[in-house]
Amino acid sequence: MANEYRSIVEYFGEHEGYRCGYCGSKDTNYSHGMWAHRMTTTDYQDLIDRGWRRSGKYCYKPKMDVICCPQYAIRLDILNVKLTTSQKKVLKKVHKFLNDNIRPHGKSGMEDENGQRGGMLIEEKPGQESNENVADTMPATISDHYMRVDMDAIRKEDKTNDSMSVPSSTVSVANNEAKVKEPKSQVKGADPNKPPCKKAKLIRMERKQRKLQARGISLDQMEKRASKGNEEKTLEQFFSEIKKDAHNKLEVKIISSSPRSKEFTDTMQQSYELYKKYQQAMHNDPPDKCTQKQWIRFLVDSPIKVN
């Protein structure tokens, strides 16, 4: 029973240089290594703090003074993490998908559950040409269009030999380019029937106040929040904004892969397909290299035992 709380490792020590997986050199990678048959979480944490790494059950520590590509661990303090602007935008897209089933569509807009993108929707009326036919009949440039209009006017003038009355908007040709002369619009000032314009910042503040009032927050509570200043939201606060009656549900589970739990076994093939897709897309690995056996050895098998 006491052996369950002890680590059992097989130390390999130093060895000759071998191929580097980063730069591709044949004999410039040096490290200490050991095979962990069993390891407690406390011992594993101590190894990580000293620069050790793990791949499956194999643990290794690069020799930073002689290795070709030194590897430095970057630790993220998850309790004090601050979300970036791009990460907040991604979370907002997640909210729209979970709450209203609106899916992101490329870089320019969003798509609702029916596949419609935000923005204007152009419908073709009966007897109206499609966009492709209209594009075929349109002139190549605006100048060509106005030149065509001007030539029609000249032909009419030659036929009638009469002086034509110049309309309010005439077409003239100068320097082989068509120009349109339009009458200057008279500026009458602001429309008294419309409300005065507001700054975008003020509109956002009023919209926020209406949302808080709809949630039952009084004006005094609003002032207290404003006096505290802008506080950074945590990741938990972002996810707490998901509605209880959301269209989609987000469920996060921690399951055991070693020993394998039933949940892991049921989704094992899906996990492997995701790993294979990632390796081919991000690391350009060939399909024959992304075998299930390698995936199990690299990510699934683990010597770590809970203390």
Explain what you see.
The protein has 10 helices and 9 strands. The chain is an alpha+beta fold and 307 residues long. The strands form 3 sheets. Strands 1, 2, 3, 4 and 9 form a 5-stranded mixed sheet that branches. The protein starts with 7 loop residues before the first strand and ends with a strand.
Quick overview of this protein structure:
The chain is built from ten helices and nine strands. It is of the alpha+beta class and 307 residues long.
- Tell me about the largest β-sheet: 5 strands, mixed
Radius of gyration: 34 Å
- Summed up, the helix count is 10
Total beta-strand segments: 9
> What oligomeric arrangement do these chains adopt?
single chain
Q: What's the helix-strand series? A: EEHEEHEEHHEEHHHHHHE
Fraction in beta strands? 5-15%
Helix content: 25-40%
- Overall pLDDT confidence: 75
Q: Would you tell me the structural class of the helices and strands?
A: alpha+beta
Q: Termini, distance in Å?
A: 12 Å
Envelope shape: elongated
Give keywords.
alpha+beta; 36% helix
Draw up the topology in text.
Blueprint lengths: L7 E6 L17 E10 H9 L3 E3 L2 E5 L22 H16 L2 E3 L3 E3 L19 H7 L4 H19 L9 E5 L2 E5 L18 H15 L4 H10 L6 H6 L21 H5 L1 H15 L9 H9 L3 E2 L2
Parallel strand pairs: 2-9
Antiparallel strand pairs: 1-2, 2-4, 3-4, 5-6, 7-8
